[in-house]
Amino acid sequence: MSTTPKNTTTAAATDTVSERPPVFSVDGLWKVFGPKAARVPADPDLTALSPAELRSRTGCTAAVADVSFDVRKGEVFVVMGLSGSGKSTLVRCLTRLIEPTAGSIAIDGEDVRAMDKSRLRELRRHRAAMVFQHFGLLPHRTVLDNVAYGLEVQGLGRAERRERAAAIVAKVGLEGLEQRRPGQLSGGQRQRVGLARALAVDPEVLLFDEPFSALDPLIRRDMQEEVVRLHREEGRTMVFITHDLQEALKLGDRIALMRDGRVVQLGTPEEIVGSPADDYVREFVRDVPREQVLTVRTAMRPATSADEAGTGPAIRPEATVSEAIEAVARAGSAARVMDEGRCLGVVDASDLLSVVAGTADAPAAADGAAAAAAAGSRAAGAARVGDGGPPARAKPSVGEAPAQRRKPTTPAEPTTEEPA
Amino acid sequence: MATITAPTSQKAAPPGILTHPATRKLLALAALAAVLVPLAVTQWGGATWPSALTVDVSEPLGKASDWIIDNRDSHPLFLYFFGHVSNVVVIAVRAVYLALLAVGWAGVSAIGALVAWRVAGVRLALGTAAAFLACGLLGMWVPTMQTLALMVVAVLASVVVGALLGLAAGLSDRMDRVLRPVLDTMQVLPAFAYLLPVVLVFGIGVPAAVLATVVYAAPPMARLTSLGLRGADKEVLEAVESLGTTARQRLLTARIPLARKELLLGVNQTIMMALSMAVIASVIGAGGLGDRVYQALASVDVGAALAAGIPIVLLAVVLDRVTGAAGERLGESGRSPVTWLYALVVAAAVALAGRLAGFLDWPDGWEVDIAEPVNRAVDWMTAHLYSGVPVVGGTADWAGHFTSWVLNPLRDGLQWLPWWSVLLIVAALAWLIGTWRTALTAVLAMAAIGVLGVWDPSLDTLSQVLAAVAVTLVVGFATGIAAARSDRFERLLRPVLDVFQTMPQFVYLIPVVALFGVGRAPAVAAAVVYALPAVVRITAQGLRQVDPAALESARSLGATSGQQLRQVQLPLARPALLLAVNQGVVLVLAVVIIGGLVGGGALGYQVVFGLAQGDLATGLVAGAAIVCLGLMLDRVTQPTERRAKKGA
What we know:
The complex is a heterodimer of chains A (420) and B (648). With 420 residues, chain A is of the alpha/beta class. Chain A is 40% helix and 18% strand. In chain A, helix 9 packs across helix 10 and helix 18 packs antiparallel against helix 19. Chain A is globular. Helices cover 81% and strands 0% of the residues of chain B. Chain B has 2 domains: 293 residues, MetI-like fold (Orthogonal Bundle); 254 residues, MetI-like (MetI-like fold), CATH 1.10.3720. The relative contact order of chain B is 0.10.
């Protein structure tokens, strides 16, 4: 697997997320806790063991085991798993807050593991900023000074950093609270401060470590919408850790599902829900309302007659099944899936019902993307190389193509200075 | 019922007893004893520590002290190191003292009140001013300033030394591993043990007093600094690191500010410890208030002792409340430098006005002599309350009875026990409550006492400690349980406990001498009074912090309040109760030793005697024995968690 940057010309030419250059490129990453941890990834006998066997044999725990993926520019990459699956360790390895045991990490093609201290500080100061589950705010500072902290660390003067911080504070909706201290804020407000602090340094990538898990459900929804809004406005690359499947499906362009330190499936929300890679994933996504995740592209069948291909309401291939249900119910007939004036196929009531019931075929039939999602982290690696690419999601954020505005290697051009 | 329960209990009981960890520990110990005891008995029989196993250290110690006295003015070590230290301390204390006198009583009171006002609010400002004026009224202005001058220097030095050590321990794991056991041990040693080594090097005088105070007062600062640095919210530190901070930036902008609560608590603790020690250090030439108390106690002049004791208590309460309030007010905004400047100007103006008006020395006419009326009251008490009061008997009778019915049998019993059985008991207790490690330390400490040749006086001290601890625990647990069960009682008790916990050990001797005269019983009484507040407080807190869900479920099952207490609260509060025992023992020992000043005899007396006679060897041996005794008592009562778990 290469860690070199992908060909940028193709990225400029075609603007699907799948073909943009990777921001983070992770390959064969291991983080093993325990005595003599380095021997575990190196020994094929040990890497094949289950977590329990590994622990009893060596006393080591593999928090992250042989994980490979690319985070592409402008996408929201969600790492999801239950507690103890290694997702938080994984995101900390990206900026070496936790030192990885083996494997490679590259940011814009630059080897993160080879960085020296000052280069690493540079990475943390300017290129990747993190939002934490319990906010990690400094209780003795005001909101404004907390937001400005990252700039202070960079050595900016007081007046300038306060001015920039004030703009960010306004952007995340905290006007008027600048002089409060974190202890005087609600949980949602505190996380807005955490978010503002990360945004203030205008990083290339935002890392979120279960940022909303500690919040009440309603506030959590607000914050999720805030993140969607920010992503839509700025198109910033995000790596988002969560244990909440709904959150993952709502925010993620692609989702890596982790279990026991390994990625068990990597794909779009539609792939994860539509064609689970194994029983674990199937069990995981069982209660997801499939009609809200799967698109008509997976549900459609070829038109059987010219009559079918010529009449009926037209819907986009990216429309969800529930949207199609509404359209079909209104028209009382099958709907046509239209893409740029071309009829790709049709869906009728029974097609849609079978999706809801979970009896439909895997979407693999539709475009073959599920091959990538077939099994394990090796497959994840395969997906990274690209195999025709998973379908772009029906998200306006993707369609806005922020990559055109942002050069791949210079994060400096601050979108944050635009008026919110 | 019986038929159902009988078989299960039969089935469960035998393995239950055999596999119970306590039984296994005792069995192992019994096996060890079966081998070692016959050997020891045949070799060195008798009740007291065998003379064959003692090492006479007094001769080499005497020689060492003679050498130091001879060479104090000529040896380079003294000339170029200790001499300078000593000079700096003397000059610093002198400078602060003169500065305080130059500001005058009006100025000092005004500055104190203004600082208290800015830091802690109006009420404490008034209290501070009143306390200073009371010191003057009692005719103790100059001694108060002497003590204050010594305190200022000692506290500054302690805070700096403690903070530096704490910083090292907080940042480096290795340093922490080295320092922690030392600091933990220093925490439990009686103040008296620190006096002699310092005197050995510096001789009796102000430098020795200041350094003893620093040695005694710096550990809490170091511990709390390290604790604060280590206890910082991990995620905050991670967040700070994720922003690309350098180690220096992390320390200055995050770790130290995050630890400021602990740092201020450390300053508070250091001040309280320093005051306590500065008063005790009068024994080695500290001068000031403690010296007045010491001199007065030596001639059983309770009135004079009280006149000097009240300023000590006032100083303690004011210092504690003001620094404590500073800690609680942290994080509140609105402390602007402008108001500080304003306060400073006002203070300077008051000081200047006082100076111009001639209010420098406290006017003689304003002094109130309380010594004489107090002594008259004490004389009356001696005449009427000491003995012969119908039915209840007098206080001296109580003391006498306590001595002859409790202390003497206990002491004689301990001294009658064969020495190896004492070691065995220590080992068993320490092992049952702690681990084999603590047991080993305890046994070694106890054996060291024997080796030093002070077995009998140590057992005398031990008997006083045991009697005092027993009384303390009975009264303390009863009061603590009552306080935990009744909110009203706790509200009444709280201010009393607050004041009692801030008072230096030394002042407890004054009322007991007034009530009971001199002897071992008053020493025990002082120790009980000193240790009670801590025991009551820890017990009440432990009981109140019992998981409410467990209590609720017990109530929902229909448990009576007695059942709730016995079956839920007490078992769940076990850690707190063990801590109360441990604290009780440590505090009691500290005062029982000081009781040597009022006729407590034993080790404490030997230290005092050594100091008074210039016989440092005797004093040092007794001091070492105190250290060993403190170590042993602490380890025996220390419920340590298994360290192995943490290490693995």
